[in-house]
Amino acid sequence: MRIVIAEDDLLLREGVSLLLRAESLDVVATTSTPEDFLTAVEVHRPDVAIVDVRMPPTHTNEGIVAAVEARRRQPDLAVLVLSAYVEQAFATDLLARDTTRLGYLLKERVGRVEEFLDALRRVASGGTAIDPEVVAQFMTKTRSDAGLQRLSSRERDVLALMAEGLGNGAIAERLYVTNGAVHKHIRNIFAKLDLAPTDRADRRVAAVLRYLENTQACPDKPRSLPPSGR
């Protein structure tokens, strides 16, 4: 796995680089500006890019803009975006696009090494990895979709873990239920959201995007997601 890192914080940039190299992963370039990042992508043709949301010169959305441009230039590039906190406008913009080979994690997740590496590998292999806190905030802000309101509490838990990019087996392990139970919950989710099987749409992605596309302001506190371990 060939990796380019775009992060303007020197300590975090070097720390992530050392962590990945210790795992025998090939960090081919580390950069601190969007321009250098795009150059590195052109030169090294990495498999994965790890990109900070906020980069110079304005520290607003330069990282997101650069990540989108990098994917335009290299469509098969996997991108793992890092953010200091949940930035819903940026997350929605990213996730409303093609969600394959895409991850969005809070920087604090890097310190949880196994979770970070799992997310990186999932994205590199063509999947999706969304930080649980991002999912939690989206879930509490979705109130306009009648189909989503019909979901049971357990079905919403399953949908939240689907949004993180977990497969059925991983969801079953997280919720301490059987694979068959997860499969049943997912069938119910598809039915309640009126998502019929077609050749043109991935129903898992469509289910996740339903609440992203219907996000509204809501004063509720973020709901608790299932624990990440036993």
Task: Please name the CATH topology of the largest domain.
Answer: Rossmann fold
Strand ordering within the main sheet: 2-1-3-4-5-6
Strand content: 5-15%
The biggest beta sheet reads:
6 strands, parallel
Amino- and carboxy-terminal Cα gap: 30 Å
* Helical stretch tally: 11
Helix content: 40-55%
DSSP summary, beta strand count: 6
Poorly predicted spans: 215-230
* CATH classification, class level of the largest domain: Alpha Beta
Radius of gyration, whole Å = 18 Å
Coarse structural class: alpha/beta
The total number of structural domains is 2
Shape: elongated
Task: Summarize the structure in words.
Residues 144-215 form the HTH luxR-type domain. GO terms for molecular function: DNA binding. Keywords: DNA-binding, Phosphoprotein, Transcription, Transcription regulation. This is DNA-binding response regulator, NarL/FixJ family, contains REC and HTH domains. InterPro entries: CheY-like_superfamily (IPR011006), NreC/VraR/RcsB-like_REC (IPR058245), Sig_transdc_resp-reg_C-effctor (IPR016032), Sig_transdc_resp-reg_receiver (IPR001789), Tscrpt_reg_LuxR_C (IPR000792), WalR-like (IPR039420). The protein is an alpha/beta fold and 230 residues long. It has two domains: 2-130, Response regulator (Rossmann fold, 3-Layer(aba) Sandwich); 137-213, Orthogonal Bundle (Arc Repressor Mutant, subunit A), CATH 1.10.10.10. Helices cover 49% and strands 13% of the residues. The chain is built from eleven helices and six strands. It has helices spanning 10-22, 34-44, 62-73, 88-95, 113-124, 132-140, 146-149, 153-163, 168-175, 179-192, 203-213; strands at 2-6, 26-31, 48-52, 78-83, 102-106, 128-130. Strands 2-1-3-4-5-6 form a six-stranded parallel β-sheet, sandwiched between helices. Helix 6 (132-140) crosses helix 8 (153-163). The longest helix has 14 residues, at 179-192. The radius of gyration is 18 Å and the shape is elongated. The protein starts with a strand and ends in a 17-residue tail after the last helix. Mean pLDDT is 81; it is low at 215-230.
